[in-house]
Write a structure and sequence with these properties.
Elements: H1 21-24, H2 29-36, H3 45-49, H4 57-62, E1 90-94, E2 97-101, H5 127-139, E3 145-149, H6 158-169, E4 176-181, H7 183-186, H8 193-199, E5 205-210, H9 219-230, E6 235-241, H10 249-261, E7 265-271, H11 285-295, E8 306-311, E9 314-318, E10 323-326, E11 330-334, E12 340-344
Parallel strand pairs: 2-3, 3-4, 4-5, 5-6, 6-7, 7-8
Antiparallel strand pairs: 1-2, 8-9, 10-11, 11-12
Length: 346
């Protein structure tokens, strides 16, 4: 396998790593060649440097595994996004908000991606198609909130992204613009002064960033997040619960606390979606509930996100059972130590 051809060279701070890097780790490159014909592979030089050993949490997220081709349980579109796509590149599942897909590429192709069926299949979405999707938003006055996603929207050029955001901000009934990205985590050099100065023209603008492991919180990613926060952009994190990566309360608590230190507020922990090719990443639902129970009370409330399961009908928040009894007269609750209290219901 020519590994260099699979590595994004947008990080100009260093040349692409030697193609024998994966061989040196003991990776079966013939298997990778086979897998990437179905599910593309790409990793930035920056993110590759975070890999310390074969099958460590960074490796697992970015390097193909033969298990991807052996998954016979899951569906390509488990969230039924295609059923909620009235026009290309737009998903309208909730009453007052839509998902606008503005990019078909990412800086890194996460092996557990919800849109594994789509991302990396075409070079880039034509701007004309995105403008058509924005026209749908203009025509639907009930839409007050848009999530700009992809792929990764920050892989559009500054000029393209400014054009998209300008058209969105010109819609009178559209109140909130959110950007979903993994760029500060996998390609922090993309966050430039020019980019953040452009983004801050479109407030209220929010950004949700995808971090999965404490090793991803580095001086480089901290600097990128700091630049965005200094531009007045509220930052949230979206984390996917992944077997062998972060399905451990110590790891998850460390991640949430580190995110707060770089001004990123923990927002969601997602149960891994039932996407074809990602079965080996899935944990039992109990694991997420256990982690939430060990976060609540054992760290700051700022560091406790919502645990959600996403499905065809939308996100469902799941939490440990703190409510034990409720009737007309009393409520019985328990705290993080399982200590019970009875209060009057009046």
């Amino acid at each position: 396998m020519n590994c260099n051809s699979e590595i994004d060279s947008a990080d100009a701070t260093e040349p692409p790593p030697a193609s024998n890097f994966f061989l040196d780790l003991g990776t079966n490159v013939k298997e990778i060649e086979r897998i990437k014909r179905k599910y593309p592979m790409k990793i930035t030089p920056y993110y590759r440097r975070l890999i310390k050993s074969k099958d460590d949490p960074i490796y697992k997220q970015s390097v193909p595994d033969i298990c991807e081709l052996q998954d016979i349980k899951n569906a390509e579109d488990p969230l039924h996004e295609e059923n909620y796509t009235p026009v290309p590149y737009l998903v309208h599942k909730y009453p007052d908000r839509v998902l606008l897909l503005v990019s078909s590429t990412c800086a890194m192709y996460c092996r557990f991606c919800t849109r594994k069926r789509k991302v990396g299949r075409i070079k880039q979405i034509p701007l004309e198609e995105i403008y058509k999707a924005i026209s749908y938003i203009e025509e639907h006055k009930e839409v007050r909130d848009v999530v700009v996603s992809g792929g990764d929207p920050l892989l559009r050029t500054d000029k393209e992204l400014e054009s998209i955001l300008s058209r969105l901000r010109a819609i009178p009934h559209l109140e909130i613009i959110r950007i979903g990205t993994r760029i500060p985590c996998v390609l922090p050099s993309r966050i430039t002064k020019h980019l953040v100065n452009m983004l801050k023209k479109f407030h209220p603008l929010y950004m949700n960033i995808h971090f999965n492991h404490p090793s991803e919180v580095t001086p480089e990613s901290a600097k990128a997040c700091g630049m965005l926060a200094d531009a007045g952009i509220p930052l949230g994190s979206q984390t996917v619960l992944l077997k062998g990566v972060n399905d451990d309360v110590t790891v998850m608590k460390s991640l949430m606390q580190k995110l707060l230190q770089i001004r990123v507020r923990p927002y969601y922990i997602y149960q891994c979606d039932e996407v074809k090719g990602v079965e080996h990443f899935k944990t039992k639902f109990d694991k997420g509930i256990e982690i939430m129970k060990q976060l609540q009370g054992y760290t700051s409330g700022l560091a406790v996100p919502k645990f959600v399961i996403d499905g065809p009908g939308g996100k469902v928040p799941i939490s440990p059972d703190y409510l034990k009894r409720l009737d007309e007269n009393e409520i019985e609750i328990c705290n993080y130590k399982d200590e019970r209290y009875v209060l009057k219901n009046s």
